[in-house]
């Protein structure tokens, strides 16, 4: 698997694996054990359990998802919803452009960014082989009490393991992901660089509308 395709695939996986929402059920879907209603447990436990569950669900429903990309989109969006801290991640992506912005503008930008991301990369989960296994390497504290980093690897047959790190912060009684690093590349930093020029010329609301309409698109494969 070449580098651009691998990054694209791992992005789609990482985005959906960041979540801990219950697996959505459809008429054709096999029964699946629901995820915990609250995000309790250690960050490493959450990453391990959620990764295994999502990978197993994708394999079990591969033929259904291949025939019905809308069902795949609903599944990926549902998985993305609960554990990923959209608002906090959006503020990180906006950086200096988000200073003084309203909570409503931040939320709208975060929602549009996530939806654009899923539209563009969600199908990668079916287009490429996802028969992967996850291995947790370590859990370490982030500087200044910002949270923890869970370092993991996606292990694949016939290839080197792909390192995927999850940056997580406390949210109530549990944990939420605010950034994902694949092979050392932060998606928050990648998106911040991509949108900086647009945000220098336009308001957050204008960039949000362009994301929603498809005039702007995230590009997570940027090196």
TrEMBL record:
<protein>
    <submittedName>
        <fullName>ABC transporter substrate-binding protein</fullName>
    </submittedName>
</protein>
<keyword id="KW-0732">Signal</keyword>
<dbReference type="InterPro" id="IPR042245">
    <property type="entry name" value="Tgt2/MlaC_sf"/>
</dbReference>
<feature type="signal peptide">
    <location>
        <begin position="1"/>
        <end position="27"/>
    </location>
</feature>
<dbReference type="Pfam" id="PF05494">
    <property type="entry name" value="MlaC"/>
</dbReference>
<dbReference type="InterPro" id="IPR008869">
    <property type="entry name" value="MlaC/ttg2D"/>
</dbReference>
């Amino acid at each position: 698997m070449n580098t651009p395709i691998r990054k694209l695939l791992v992005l789609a996986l990482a985005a959906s694996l960041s979540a801990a929402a219950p697996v959505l059920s459809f008429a054709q879907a096999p029964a699946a054990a629901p995820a915990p209603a609250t995000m309790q447990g250690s960050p490493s436990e959450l990453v391990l359990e959620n990764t295994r569950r999502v990978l197993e669900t994708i394999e079990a429903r591969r033929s259904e998802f291949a025939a019905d990309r809308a069902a795949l989109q609903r599944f990926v969006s549902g998985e993305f919803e609960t554990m990923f801290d959209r608002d906090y991640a959006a503020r990180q992506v906006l950086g200096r452009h988000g200073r003084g912005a309203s909570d409503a503008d931040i939320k709208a930008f975060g929602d549009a960014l996530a939806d654009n991301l899923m539209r563009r990369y969600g199908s990668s989960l079916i287009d490429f082989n996802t028969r992967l296994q996850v291995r947790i390497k370590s859990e370490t504290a982030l500087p200044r009490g910002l949270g923890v980093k869970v370092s993991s690897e996606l292990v694949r047959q016939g290839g080197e393991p792909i390192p995927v790190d999850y940056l997580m912060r406390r949210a109530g009684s549990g944990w939420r992901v605010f950034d994902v690093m694949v092979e050392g590349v932060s998606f928050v930093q990648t998106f911040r660089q991509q949108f900086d020029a647009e945000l220098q010329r336009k308001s957050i609301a204008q960039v949000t509308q362009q994301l929603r309409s498809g005039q702007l698109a995230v590009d997570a494969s940027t090196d």
